[in-house]
Write a structure and sequence with these properties.
By secondary structure, this protein is α+β, with helices and mostly antiparallel strands. 16% of the residues lie in helices and 25% in strands. This is DUF6886 family protein.
Length: 178
Amino acid sequence: MRPDTGQVLHFSEDPTIKKFVPHVAKTSRQTRPYVWAVGFDRCPDYWFPRHCPRAMAWKGQDTRPWDVERFVGAGCGERVHAIEYGWLKAMMEVRLYAYRLPADPFVPIGQPPHAVVAEEPVVPLGPPEPVSDLIELHEEAGIQLRVLDNLWPFWNQVTASTMEFSGIRLRNARRSTN
């Protein structure tokens, strides 16, 4: 599930949204109200239940080959996503929807950019589209999906490596075993 040219996507478990209004999310570090969405490259970050903690790593421009082999696996592509066993059932059962939004009012946020934001209300281009099997989406995109007992050992090693990385909802992960 990716946006077409001139579009960005917003993923939600709520299929009833008619208009996205800028707001400050409870979990946001940002103090300005935004409508949040993602472009083509960051869509896989949201192929999960909303509250599911996930650690993601991928090959970047400065990533060393041994780190790709160590974290993704030899011959297994350039990206890995990890979740905990406790979230696997939710991952298989969640009903996720993608809203296609016009890209024009959105600007990149973050350094490097990890999302796009709009400071004005945005009306979807059409009804929300059900997102298909999330595990299949990972497979089709060539993204390794790893299921771990605890995300923290993986996260701690990835963040100390040359891999690019992102963690979402990590506060929902099991407590660290370290």
